[in-house]
Amino acid sequence: MSARTTPPFRADHVGSLLRPRALLEARAAAASGAISADDLRAAEDAAIRDAVALQADIGLRAVTDGEFRRASWHMDFIYEIAGVEKVSQAMKSVFHNADGDIEFTPAGVQVTGKLGMDHTIFGSAFEFLRDTAAQAAPGATPKLTIPAPSLVNYRGGPAAIDHTVYSDMDEFWDDLGAAYADEVARLDAIGCTYLQIDDTSLAYLNDPDQRAEITRRGEDADHQHEIYIKSINRALRDKPAGMTVTTHMCRGNFRSSWVAQGGYEFVADALFNELNVDGYFMEYDDERSGGFEPLRFVPKGKFVVLGLVTSKKPQLEAKDDIKRRIDEAAKYVDIDQLCLSPQCGFSSTLDGNSLTLEQEIAKLRLVVEIAEEVWG
Fold first, then answer.
1. CATH architecture label of 21-375
2. Pairing between β-strand 100-104 and β-strand 303-309 as defined by DSSP bridges
3. pLDDT tens for residues 111-156?
4. How many C-alpha atoms does 51 have within 13 Å on its Cβ side?
5. Which residues partner with 141 through β-bridges?
6. Which pTM value belongs to this model?
7. What is the pLDDT of residues 273-286, one digit of tens each?
8. Angle between the 123-136 and 37-58 helix axes, to the nearest 10 degrees?
9. Three-state secondary structure of 144-190
10. How far is CA 193 from CA 157, 246, 249, 340, 341, in A?
C-alpha cells in the first residue's frame, strides 16, 4: 500500500465547508443593499484564503474554496446554463433527521431554450482558488465541484422542459452533454486538473420510493440511472488527459438531514463499469447506505473514496471503528483502490450542518491521520 500523488488522494474531502460567520453576515448585508457586490466579493476572497490555508494546515492534498461563493452546491451552477431559467415555482424536497422532517424549497428550474454554455461557469471562482492555492498551499491540488447534468432533469423531470424547444428527449440529452463537454474544456483551459461531478441522483435511485416517483412522472425508473450515466459520459467525451474526474454520491445533505436511503446495489454494476470517471466518493457513514458488497463491481484502475466520517453529526468517530470498516470494504475491492473522506460536504447550502468549525476541523484531521496510518 502507498500514498497517492494524484487525485483522488488517500485523505480527501467532498468540497463544501462551514461558512464563517463574517461571510454569512456579509451575504446578508449584500442582500439588503447595505454593502456592494464588490464588498461581498472581498469578504468571500478573505474567507477563501483562510479556508485554503486551513485545509493545507490539516494536511489535505486537495483544497477547495469551500463553495463559499455559492448559496447552493448545485443550483448556482444550473441557473447559469444557457437555456435554463429560474422560475418562481419552488422545488420542494423533504429531508429527514432524528427530530423530524424539514423542507428545502429552492426556486425551480425550467428549460426554456436550447441548452449551451456561453461562459465558463465558476471560471473566475476557480481561477481565484488556483492562484490562492499556489500561494497558500504550494503542492496542493485545487479541486472544483460542479453538479452533474442529471440534476437539470432529476428534480423537475419532463414537466420542467419546454417541449416546443425539446420535443425529443434524446436531443435534450445531446445538447446538455455538449454544454457540459464545453464546460470541461473551458475548465481545462484555465488549469483545472481535479474536477468532481456531484450526482446525488445515482444514490437516490437506490431508494424504491425515489424510483416510484420517477415512474409517477412518466419516466423509466428501471433505467433512469443508465440515462444519467450516459449524460455524464457525454460531458466527458473529450476529457483532457491531465484531468482527474470523480463523482460524489449522497442521499441528501441539508442541515444534517437526508432524503433517500438504500444500498448501492441497484446502480452498482452500471455505476462502476459504465461511468467513465476515475473515482467515486461514496456515502457510507450509516446504515442508510447499505453494505460494501456493491464494491465487488469496481474494476481495476478505479478508486473509491469511502465516506466513513460523517459531516452530519458533531461526534468524532473512533479511529479503530473507521479502520475496521476500511478492512470490511477491502473484502470486496483491493485496499490499494480505496481512499477516505467525510461522507459529504459540511455545508451544501448556506445553512450548514449541525456542528462547529472546531468539530469540522477535527473530522478532517481524523481523515488525514487515519489515511496516513492505513496507507502510509
1. Alpha-Beta Barrel (3.20)
2. unpaired
3. 999 999 999 999 999 999 999 999 999 999 999 999 999 999 987 7
4. 27
5. 62
6. 0.93
7. 999 999 999 999 98
8. 40
9. EEEECCHHHHHCCHHHHECCCCCCCHHHHHHHHHHHHHHHHHHHHHC
10. 32, 11, 20, 20, 19
Cα–Cα–Cα angle for 240, 244, 250, rounded to 5 degrees: 130
CA 28 vs CA 131, 234, 243, 265, 291: distances in Å: 27, 38, 36, 43, 42
d(CA 189, CA 186): 5
Q: Which three cell numbers stand for residue 54?
A: 486551513
Task: Give domain limits for the chain.
Answer: 21-375
Cell triple for 52 = 485554503
The Cα–Cα gap between 98 and 142 comes to 35
Q: How far apart are CA 204 and CA 273, in angstroms?
A: 19
Rounded Cα–Cα distance for residues 355 and 311 (Å): 8
Q: How far apart are the first and last CA of the chain?
A: 7
Show the cell assigned to 195: 474536477
Q: Is the peptide bond before 147 cis (omega within 30 degrees of 0)?
A: no
Distances (CA, A) of 135 to 50, 145, 228, 307: 12, 21, 38, 29
